[in-house]
Fold:
Amino acid sequence: MGSAFCLLMFMFMRVLLLLSLTPFNLMVAMSSSTSFFSMQHSLCHDSEKSALLQFKQSFLIDEHASTDPSAYPKVEIWKSNEEEGEGSDCCLWDGVECDKETGHVIGLHLASSCLYGSINSSNSLFNLVHLRRLDLSDNHFNYSEIPFAVGELSGLRSLNLRNSLFSGQIPSELLAQSELVFLDLSANPLLQLQKPGLRDLVQSLTHLKQLRLNQNYLSVRNNPDLIGYLPEFEEASPLKMLLLSATSFSGELPTSIGRLGSLTALDISSCEFTGKIPHSLANLTELTHLFLSENNFSVGTLSWLGQQTKLISLSLRHINVKGEIPSSLANMSQLTSFTLSKNQLSSQIPSCLMNLTHLTSFFLSENSLEGPIPRSLFELVNLRYLFLYSNYLNGTVELHLLSKLKDLTHLDLSSNRFSFLNYNKSTNATFPKLKTLGLNDCNLTEFPDFLRYQDELEWLSLFENKIHGPIPKWMWNISKETLEVLDLSRNFLTGFDQHSVVLPWSRLHYVRLDSNMLQGPLPIPPPSTIQYSVSGNKLRGEIPPLLCNMASLMLLDLSSNNLNGRIPPCLANLSKSLLVLDLGNNDFNGPIPQTCTTPNNLRVIDLGENQFQGQLPRSLANCMMLEHLVLGNNQIDDIFPFWLGALPHLKVLILGSNKFHGEMGSWHNNIRFPKLCVIDLSDNEFTGDLPSKYFQNLDTMKLTNVSNGLWYLQANTRIEMQGYTTNFPYNYSMTITNKGMQRFYEKIPDIFKAIDFSGNNFIGQIPTYIGKLQGLHLLNLGDNNLSGPIPSSLGNLTQLESLDLSKNKLSGEIPWQLTRMTFLGFFNVPNNHLTGPIPQGKQFATFSNASFDGNPGLCGTPLSRACRSPEARPPTPSSSKQGSASKFDWKFAIMGCGSGPVIGISIGYSLTSWKHEWFVRTFGNRQRKWTRIERMGLRS
Structure:
């Protein structure tokens, strides 16, 4: 079926070619073909013909083996002498090139030929010893290794194995091909370049002009784990293209790279290079494409840039460049794409850049640039992309100047200090037809009037401005057939200036209206919606069934409104696509509907702070991807849901402030909560002993590993648009008791671990095994009926920042081992039966009387009761032993009592009694991380 299809496509293309010729050209073509056939009919060598036919027979024809839409099986029409037709002369076969004098096969051009199968050194291909050009790109060689017999093709000058699914080490025999001018091994994700390495290739293949290794084992897209470095380069190397983008190459760029005087393209973007950018790059004056973006170079300037006057594309994003933009860039008059985003550039945008009249893409976002936008920038009439967001640019932007940029399609001026002068309607200015517009955090007080005439917008983002009042009627008519992303969040919008609540944009994927003052019923987005958030408004009413029509929905956030009623059962039908379901902080009631009744991808379910009743639906056990389950502050009446322990990815479980009851029960051996980091069972009606086996199975809480950098628990929705993928993260959040008060955690670090069993009726002793949960940051067992001593093993919890054992019946002395907890910022044991001296030193020197009140038998600082016998004081660790050095070196604000690194600095929190509107304005309610492709130009 596959081979027939490919052959049919081939014949169809040949017919189209013939039909495209005029009668005269057709006659000449036929005449030439006949003449060529008669002249070369006897050129084909039988041995080479046989080798080609054996090569053909060694593979299957599979239309899926090639990715090019125009692929067809060139070998399908190769024929033996016994078969009829013109196929008897192999020099006339499709993809075969012969020497006109000798008749030997010197070229095999089988790119995109639907070949599928393995290949090794015994293949008849390597009997074609006169080959000079071999192109097997875009086929499927079933992860074979590149045969070492390639070294026997001593005359080879061009070898193209791109995107052909080879794997393993590149053979050392390839180094014998000293005549190679062109080598392309790219887009083979499992290829390795170790022995030989890049140094060997460069030194042995002395005639090489184009070397393409990107997109294979050296590629970020397919194989980012390669460890390597660039070698020293010999004098007068003929290399013209060095494309190593997105590998894990590291080390410094050698100064000798300046010897590659013939180089026209250098792409080492998205690698791990360090050190200074060598000034010798100034010698590469033949460069037309230079990509150094996304490396870890030392902080430096652009003093080496300016002599490369032939440059067409320049991408220097995120390479630690500081200082001013050099005026020498004005010499690069051929530039069409210019990227210096995400650096440390300061001062103003130099007016000399306005000499770059060929510019189509201009990216200076995420720097520290100041001053106004030069008016001359609006004279760059070829601009299509203009991104200046996240700087300190100021002054007045006269919007009518945009009318000069007729070709402009993508504009982002967000997060600057501009004021905008709306255009005068009497000027009759014709604005460019934009596809992307970002004016976030620009102090806008109204919708820009020029939006009225935009009918091709795909992305419109105006979040975090000061736009007041209802959304005007005319906004509902802009770009109705094209708009895919709409973000109006964090404004002061009150509603919609028309009766319909069905959003009119038919292709909408991403809708954010959260953190406004919207009133009335819930707006309904179109079925195409992927992410929909209206949290933090004043919307009322029930969830309309129309919402269930969004079959592609991945994120639904209706939290913090005044919505009520029951959740419609049809909402469960969205679980196939849904990643995040957040209905928290509303007035929903009734039972929680059955969820995850079909295969699903749910990561987050937040139904907290509502009025849900009844038992938990057992179908939650089918949410096998679930990471974050928040059901706190409802009226759920059930026993402990031990069956949730089978969920392999569950990290956060919040069940506090409900009517859960009974004993925790015996532990089920196959129910382990393997990934659980946070559990809150507070303020319920649990009884019985604390389940020791339960704590033994909390494996993740035993880990004390500290991640490199601060990462947060989040789910990501990705939207494909305009040829690239945009990432929209959703940060997990929760409310949990810390330091005796409920606090809202806007973000949860992935290293944060907490247990809160407070406010129940647990009895018995505190299990000593808790001391092995060495990753804990918060432990709250207060307000129970626990008895017995405080286990000294708790001193092993060296990451602990908050410990609350208040309002129990604990007895005995406070173990001196607790002084080992050098991060402990909150210690609370009042209203127990503790006796003896309070341990001294380290964190215990920071606690007040309130931490120990209601224990008549305690004595010593900070209490006024002195201990009678100094000998009775527990041993105090030597002041010279301050505990193990922390990997953190963070400065953090202490709010109220002291706190450790996780609680103190990494989470924005507030008292839940504060108004939600104030909170979202102060701290925000999500993280922005837009992925923007700013690299233009060469992509090969």
In short: Helices lie at 2-19, 23-40, 46-57, 198-204, 692-696, 901-905, 916-923.
